[in-house]
User: Fold this.
Amino acid sequence: MEQQTQRRTKRKSDNNKYSKDAMSDMRHSLLRRDALSAAKEVLYHLDIYFSSQLQNASVPNVEKGTIELVEEFIFHVPKERNVQPKRLNSLQELQLLEIMCSYFQEQSKDAVRQIIFSTLFSPQGNKADDSRLAMLGKLVSMAVAVCRVPILECAASWLQRTHAVYCVRLARVLVDDYCSLVPMSIQTLKQIFSASPRFCCQFITAVTALYDLSTDDLIPPHDLLEMVVDWIFEDPRLTLVTFLNTPIVANLPLGCLELTPLAGLVRWCVESPLSYKRNRKPSLSNGHGASSKLSSEGAGEGKGDSQQPLYSKLHLSVLQILMMVQVHLAEKDLYGRFGLLMFEHVVQLVEELSRLVEELNPLNTARETELSLDRLAQSLQVAMASGALLCSREDLRPLCSRLPHNNLLQLVLSGPVQQPAPHAALPPGFYPHIHTPPLSYPALPVHPAHPALPVHPTHSALPAHPTHSAHPTHPAQTFLPGMAFPYRPIR
Assistant:
């Protein structure tokens, strides 16, 4: 047994030594090439390396030397400090992106595509991450432009397992490319709805994490909002694609995006009336600068009013999604055990909403506040009823007590009123809660029946009385409605 262990250790050591020697030889060979040729050679090496590993193991081992080759010859972060890095010019970078697009499109094995994409673009926590994420943003943006579905599917997996900080950076690149830089280019982004629903689901989750409405700069652009609302309104199940196709484990990765964008979408619907109202808040209260604020306030008001129909449409879709969640939770045997809308999300939402209300208190925001609270109440009610939110009304009451009064929210927090069962064949005027003894007292004992009294003898008839003369009639008393009736019954 000990001999077998020693052989395995020696074989592993020999393999590592051979691998290090091979990596060292390859590195020296790549140093003699130009930047574009070296990058192509590294991609070719990755394909051969992982294809052979996947034949022997389902989960290949990504060695440190492979990561170092990628960082040095694709992202141009030198391994040695005294070595001048080779930089790609703009044309060479475009050529490299085209090579990557062609490779991922032509690679028929999804497992190989996924592991190479992960090796290239998974953050390592070092100085190469900035170059890595910059290249990733350009590659995914190009994949959207030319509709390369394999790359979009790899990007969807990357968004699912990578920390949210990096996911938000990728989402911002795509929003800048298709919502800001080129007018009307949003139509290109819209078309991937049918090509890769999985990527669309992850993209929605990322943009709701990016645009959290906390400041005026973090309000989603109109084109982005309209596209997301159209996607979800056309197919509400789009937001559940990742949840429906992902095995649920006990401990989800910390810091990653949520399984669904529901928490972010609920935040958009609930906070949007007050967030857009915040744009019109005057900075000065003494009248100075009022003329310079008129145009900006008018523009903010028009913008907020034009966006609200989209948020109303989105709110309806979110309620429909929450209603269909119950069936899918039951199918996965997760009903009552796993919530898609965490209580922590509700706590954060209520705190942000309370802060917004206090911030806008001097303004006339009664209508916007009422709308926000109505949407919050509806979302909580449907989420609790469908099992998407696992909490009780007792948990919500102290949390929502800091919010202004709202009739619908108060009704939701009070819970359903249980009507008493109707009594059959009860006489009129009989009230069970009066005639039935209280539950805390025992019923009175039944007294024994008394014996019958003896029959008294009959008496002789009395003589008839003489008739009296008729009494004079008294005048009728006039009824005075304003006078109190003097008679009082004896208590």
Q: What stands out?
A: The mean pLDDT is 81. The chain is about 60% helix and 0% strand.
